[in-house]
Structure formats: structure tokens, C-alpha cells
Amino acid sequence: MRRPDAALVISLLLTVFLAVPARAAEPAAADKPAATPAAAPAAAPEVKPPASRPSVSSLLFEAGGGLNACSGEFCSEGGPSWGADLTALYRMNRHFALGFNVHYGRMAPDQIDTLYDYVLNFEARGILPLGSRLELFASAAFGYATVYADGVFDEEDGKHLIFRATGVTVGAVAGLSVRVAQRLHLGLMGRFWYPNWSDACFYEADGGECNEPEDLDFNFEMMPWYAGLFVRYELPY
Length: 237
Fold this sequence. Notes:
This protein is mainly β. Helix content is 10%, strand content 61%.
């Protein structure tokens, strides 16, 4: 009985002895090739915030020239001549602007050597854009007008007089403009004034006399008007 027991023990020892080197020969977990990492998801494209719209507020500078004339009894024996017009406006939004206007106009009456007027206006303008290039506009104006005349007023005695009249005035403006460059416009406008003459003065070599227009011995009814072309430069503000 002892031999079989010894043989069994020897067999078990050999089995354990052979198994240990085989297990040691297996690669350790650290030596195993690393698993290929999964590809990272593609980054989402960067979304940029929408660009802000440029401000529409700007400074408008207009200069033009054209036909100057007047209507009324005082202008019945004369004809039109030329005029010059300068305007500066602050455009606070797409549809409204405020500013000032200076106008100078010559006229060509038949019996007077020189006749001209000039007007200083405060102007409020409404603007109607039609697309990206064309604009219509209309303005109301309030200001101060002066008329100056130099010539013979009394043909019977041939007196050469200088005449000047002043007064506040209300006016209206209408026109259109076309954008021809980024900041440059060309346009057409018409102006009309209705003055309330408050002071009329005659000056002679030996002095002068000022009267109310109602006290003159002739009908001083005169309403200037103007129609012309202009160039506008627009400066963002």
C-alpha cells in the first residue's frame, strides 16, 4: 500500500511543478497590446454670432444749385435766375433728420437792377427709402428771409433806391436722391417759402425810411421758390 501512495504524491508534485512555469510564460496584462481607443467624435462647427447691423445715424451734407424765382405781384414783371443751396442734417434713423439750410437766390426783374433773397432755415425732414439706392424725402422748414433790391422804383422822378425787407418764413421741401457710391448721392429738390414780411426799408442818398409792408405805396407780395440739383455726402455718425 505504501508504493501506490508514494506514486500518487509524486504525480501530484510533477503536475504542480509543470503548471507554474506555463502560467508564468503567459504575458502579463500590462504587456498585452492596448486596445485601440475609439475615435473621438468630430467637433461641432463654431457658430459665430450674427454680425450687428451698422448704425443708420449719419451726418448729411448737401450742396446744390438751380433755378431761383418768386411768385406774387412784386415778381410779375421779372424772370427767374440762379440760386445756391447748402444743407447740413443729422439723420437719427432711416426715416427722420433734423438740420439747417442756407439758401441764396438771384432774380431778374425787368425794372430793377438787382434783386436777390437769402433764407436761413431750420429743417425737419422725413425720408422714405425705396430699396438700397433710391430715397424720397419731404421737409418742413422754418426760418428768416431777407430780400434786397437795388434800382429805380419810381419812374416819374427817377429816384434810385435800395430796398430791403425781412421777416420770418415757413417753407416746404420735396425731392429724391439716388446713391451713386458708398457715401455719395445725387438728387433733385424743390423749395418754396411763404414769408411773413415784418420790416420794409428804403434807403436813399440822404437817408432811409423803414415801414410796415402794409404801409408801402406798392404791393409787396413775394414768395420765393427754387428748383435744383444737389450732391450729398453721407458721413456715418
